[in-house]
């Protein structure tokens, strides 16, 4: 193992992430079979797995420059061969947003779920249109797609909080002891705190890369915290003293 | 400060501002949740106390009704039997004496039957079908009108509070029919449909305009009572076309 490999895969960001994935997987496989089949547990784990996987692939692309360059060339990007934005655009900004919308959807009352379903359809149509029309290229920064996805997630979180103060099932419980409350809070914080830096990412890297990187770090830390909360959701049946049972809208 | 620095400050402050807004939003939501939780609990306590009050009223009304019935029975039935027994015992003929004993035994039997009705324990031992049968038999025995009961199933295992409310509502509906409708026939049907288990009380009496407030207030009370146990009350009536009351049982 050379030094560059160690630097790429064993840093302050990947180590906690990989640990969270391992804890998540262990907790998930220790769950009873019926809980493993429950979307409230497998979906958070899927988001953790996907996030950790694409982050590691991202670090691999930084380690293996030739691979990154060849993918960029395949996508038509010869101007910025050092970029691996294509990977983050597809996984984090597109599939990730859809998975987060799906996660928000399962915590909403059945009557409100239709709004999220429509948001997901609109988002898919918008990303296909924006990329095929060339308005936002897959290998470059995609502020419109990010803004669209982040706004949809913020609206979804808003719907959850409205449900929390209006639905009788939620009024009977203590929100601070609900996994769903912490999930929604941290998803909302992650997307709102990284909103400006993500939309102005290109500008910041050109004008003030140090500040750009600092603001990006806030987003990275928030993503780690969100992954932590998602792992905690998977582990919640093992620590039932801390978390209350989620109000039963209906399972799945 | 050059324009680039300005833009950077805008980005920093906009990020902090968004973070602040989100924090305020979440904290406000938790506070609103707490307030609503308290209000909801107060509301639930109020509903519970109203429910208990309604049940108490119903128990009182049933006891009142029972006492009236017992009074009538003592006067019209047991009083008559005892008078007859007295007459028979006054006779020197042995067969009259024996007949007097039989009448006395019958009177004792009637008194035992009545004594059982003095507390509300009978409510627990009787099914709704049995109660309706007894009520209809009693109406029929007076010769007031024809009655019939058709039940698709036996309504048993109902909680006591639901049973009390149902008994009172059925009793009151029948009383209203007798007092105000002068029907030739009262029919009761127990069945189940998509809405759940239902009891239909139908008479062919003179009916009334259900939209009028003066006639609707008693019905409103019955409806409210059914709602306290999670059931439903529906009345349809028109002048000259009889009255139909549908009681939907709680699930």
UniProtKB/TrEMBL annotation, chain A:
The keyword Transmembrane helix applies. This is Uncharacterized protein. The chain crosses the membrane at residues 13-29, 41-63, 83-108, 115-132, 144-165, 186-205, 217-235. Keywords: Membrane, Transmembrane, Transmembrane helix.
UniProtKB/TrEMBL annotation, chain B:
Its EC number is 2.7.13.3. Its main location: cytoplasm. SMART domains: HATPase_c. The chain crosses the membrane at residues 6-32. The keyword Zinc does not apply. PANTHER family: NITRATE/NITRITE SENSOR PROTEIN NARX-RELATED, NITRATE_NITRITE SENSOR PROTEIN NARQ. This is Oxygen sensor histidine kinase NreB.
């Amino acid at each position: 193992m050379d030094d560059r490999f160690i630097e790429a895969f064993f840093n302050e960001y990947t180590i906690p992430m990989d640990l969270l994935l391992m804890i998540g997987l262990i907790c998930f496989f220790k769950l009873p079979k019926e809980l493993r089949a429950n979307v409230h547990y497998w979906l958070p784990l899927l988001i953790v797995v996907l996030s950790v996987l694409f982050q590691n692939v991202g670090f691999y692309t930084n380690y293996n420059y030739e691979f990154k360059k060849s993918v960029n060339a395949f996508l038509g990007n010869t101007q910025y061969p050092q970029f691996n934005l294509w990977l983050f655009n597809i996984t984090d900004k597109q599939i990730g947003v859809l998975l987060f919308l799906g996660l928000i959807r399962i915590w909403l009352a059945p009557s409100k779920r239709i709004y999220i379903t429509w948001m997901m359809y609109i988002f898919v149509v918008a990303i296909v249109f924006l990329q095929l029309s060339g308005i936002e290229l897959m290998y470059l920064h995609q502020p419109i797609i990010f803004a669209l996805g982040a706004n949809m997630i913020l609206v979804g979180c808003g719907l959850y909080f409205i449900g929390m103060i209006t639905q009788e099932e939620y009024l009977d419980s203590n929100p601070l002891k609900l996994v769903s409350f912490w999930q929604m809070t941290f998803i909302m914080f992650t997307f709102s705190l990284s909103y400006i830096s993500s939309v102005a990412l290109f500008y910041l890297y050109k004008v003030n890369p140090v500040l750009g990187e600092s603001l990006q770090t806030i987003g990275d830390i928030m993503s780690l915290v969100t992954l932590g909360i998602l792992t905690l959701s998977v582990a919640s049946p093992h620590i039932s003293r801390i978390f209350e049972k989620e109000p039963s809208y209906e399972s799945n | 400060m050059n324009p680039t620095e300005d833009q950077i400050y805008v980005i920093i402050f906009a990020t902090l501002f968004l973070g602040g807004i989100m924090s305020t939003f979440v904290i406000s939501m938790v506070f609103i949740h707490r307030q609503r939780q308290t209000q909801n609990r107060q509301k639930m306590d109020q509903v519970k106390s109203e429910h208990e009050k309604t049940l108490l009223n119903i128990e009182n009304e049933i006891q009142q009704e029972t006492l009236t019935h017992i009074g009538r029975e003592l006067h019209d039935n047991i009083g008559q039997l005892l008078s007859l027994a007295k007459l028979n015992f006054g006779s020197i003929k042995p067969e009259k004496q024996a007949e007097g004993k039989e009448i006395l035994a019958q009177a004792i039997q009637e008194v035992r039957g009545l004594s059982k009705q003095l507390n509300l324990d009978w409510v627990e031992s009787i099914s709704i079908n049995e109660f309706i049968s007894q009520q209809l038999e009693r109406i029929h025995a007076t010769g007031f009108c024809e009655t019939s009961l058709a039940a698709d199933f036996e309504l048993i295992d109902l909680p006591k509070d639901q049973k009390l409310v149902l008994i009172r509502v059925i009793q009151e509906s029948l009383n209203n029919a007798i007092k105000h409708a002068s029907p030739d026939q009262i029919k009761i049907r127990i069945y189940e449909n998509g809405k759940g288990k239902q009891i239909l009380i139908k008479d062919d009496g003179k009916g009334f305009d259900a939209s009028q407030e003066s006639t609707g207030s008693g019905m409103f009370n019955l409806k409210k009572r059914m709602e306290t146990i999670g059931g439903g009350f529906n009345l349809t009536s028109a002048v000259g076309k009889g009255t139909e009351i549908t009681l939907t049982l709680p699930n």
